[in-house]
Write a structure and sequence with these properties.
heterodimer, A: 144 residues, alpha/beta, 5 strands, globular, B: alpha+beta, 4-stranded mixed beta sheet
């Protein structure tokens, strides 16, 4: 599927379903895993996916000094013992194999005192809420 | 018929087998068959669902012990 060279998006057409915007705010293992599962499967199934990272989720996307995810409950501990696909691999697959873009909340970046070069390459440019609202308009929005 | 490519996704969980299949699908030619080995029972339903949704072709699914062999054909 050819992408729009300017936006990097796949143009609307027979292969294009609706938009799904996913806000990821939590730093716990269960929510990061499920957000990554949802983003990757939606992105490879023809949805236009926008992931918006803020709050406790953003530090996991640091190139250096990213924390270890913390379990919210017993399921998180169980997941840590099993061979699940790592959540970061799923987010990367969402971008590389499907039509997902991952944005970092510009407020969270200001609060952390970081620039884009501190974040992993799968994260696109910083985005403010105003732009996120435009991206999300008319689609579904899921929050983790 | 083109050669069938085997993708060994045993031991991982949803959506690992699907993602490995899709990565291999990108490299494959139209008409190629891909066989994915999975111990994740959910993938037995999820892979055909994805194949139908995006317009590829299911060849068939068989079970040997606790391993499922899901065979698909790249259709476009």
């Amino acid at each position: 599927m050819a992408r729009n060279p300017k936006s990097g998006r796949i143009p609307k057409g027979e292969d294009r379903l609706s938009k799904i915007s996913i806000t990821v705010l939590s730093g716990n293992r269960e929510k990061l895993q499920f957000a990554a599962m949802a983003a990757s499967v939606a992105a490879v199934s023809g949805y236009e996916v926008t992931v918006f990272l803020s709050m406790n989720a953003l530090p996991y996307f640091l190139r250096e000094g990213a924390p270890e995810p913390v379990s919210e409950g017993p399921f998180g501990d169980l997941m840590a013992e099993k061979n699940l696909p790592p959540f970061m691999d799923l987010f990367e697959s969402a971008v590389e194999l499907g039509d997902a873009r991952i944005y970092a909340c510009s407020m969270a970046m200001d609060v952390m005192g970081i620039k884009q070069d501190a974040l992993l390459p799968c994260v696109a440019e910083p985005m403010g809420l105003t732009k996120f609202l435009s991206e999300a308009e008319g689609g579904q929005c899921w929050s983790y | 018929m083109s050669e069938r490519k085997i993708i060994d996704a045993r031991g991982t969980y949803c959506p690992g087998p699907l993602m490995e299949l899709i990565a291999a699908m990108k490299q494959a030619e139209v008409g190629d068959e891909l066989e994915i080995l999975s111990t994740d029972e959910g993938s037995v339903n999820d892979v055909p669902e994805w194949i139908n949704k995006v317009g590829h072709e299911m060849v068939g699914t068989t079970q040997e012990g606790d391993v499922w062999h899901i065979v698909v054909r790249k259709a476009k």
